[in-house]
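Subgroup meeting minutes
Present: P.N., E.W., G.H.
Scribe: E.W.

1. P.N. recapped why we're keeping a running log of single-chain structure predictions: easier to compare across weeks, and new members can see raw inputs and outputs side by side.
2. G.H. added today's entry (454 aa).
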Amino acid sequence: MSVDSTLVQEQAQTTAELAAQLMARIHARTATVAIVGLGYVGLPLAETFASAGYDVVGFDIDSVKVEKLSAGQSYIKHIASTRVADLVSSGKFRATTDPRCFAAADAIILCVPTPLTAEREPDLSYIVGTGETIRQFIRQGQLVVLESTTYPGTTDELLRPILEKSGLVAGRDFFLAFSPEREDPGNANYSTRTIPKVVGGWDSTSRELALALYRPVVSGVVAVSSTRAAEACKILENTYRAVNIALVNELKVVFNSMGIDIWEVIEAAKTKPFGFQAFYPGPGLGGHCIPIDPFYLTWVARRYGIHTRFIELAGEVNASMPQYVVNRVTEALNDHAKPLQGSKICILGVAYKKNVDDPRESPAFTIMELLQKRGAVVSYNDPHVPVLPAMRHHSIRLQSEPLTAEYLAEQDAVVIVTDHSGFDFEWIVRQSRLVIDTRNATARVAAAGHVWKA
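Output recorded in log:
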């Protein structure tokens, strides 16, 4: 046997031993899991692993978050502080800003943001920065899993080379996988624990280790052939939603011009027991996934010389909805002999969807800025978002106004952008001169003659 063959055989044996040792710790639940990024995805995931008996360390560069978590306080509306306090008091979780925690971890899971740049191209700086930090502490026998939504190839082409700058090799010295997050903040029917996990590995050993890691903590795992297939799965899920939402948004505009209520049509259509799934129109897409993920796919498709016309058209339709809402506000005011310029407009709800405190990519920001450019006096109310946070692509700064009868009576129009369950829409309609409803929130309100759909 040649020297090279002997080295290969010895290395294979070492890799097998590393994998076996890690697998044993995972099965015994003595493995330490590090969660990078303690936001809407990372914090529930940390809670899920800790509840399953694993020791969990949560890492975040935001010291304020770490301090709050350590004190048993939540900074996410739909996650009660009692849950965080129970998590901390269990002794299975601690939060830190010290990256040296990665050296002691057996598995490191990345839950960092993947936004778009101003040019609507992937902003992978959070993945790159996190990868550069981890590679300073990575050691043999660790499993690294990326959960951040991104284009097919990111784990292999971007994260792996960064980690391998440590001198360790993926699939030989450490193990690498991708498992897309499927978190739906505020959804009472599904949680991190009850949503199946799709898992793809850089190699078969990495995949088996990642499957073993997630099996005890979620309701099911779905193995796919590679990290690219797992990345493509998440892109498909959200592109499917974006395209279908674009369809009903376009039909909303068409049907409105014909005097037809799109929401009535959808309610009737969904009585068909096969061949139809209901999607609903709105003021535009929001959140950290659906408005962003399809553009990751269109960007990477161009690298292969493919133009994704269908997806890009859907993006254009959805992106045009805030302008459509503003046009409807203008029409409604004109019908009441009132110009938009100088009118007082209340935006009701600025979170990207109901019952959450997350305003990322919310169409409310664009609607408010368009109204301001046309001379309207804009204010807002949202019980979940008391102050508009600094946003990457928006400069508007306001505080939520108290939702009183006097405040509503002063407004020339109230625009329902987010249909929080806490809003009493019947009362709001009674107190308001004019309501523009983008969510069909007033469907069951009696005598809603001064309500316009948008």
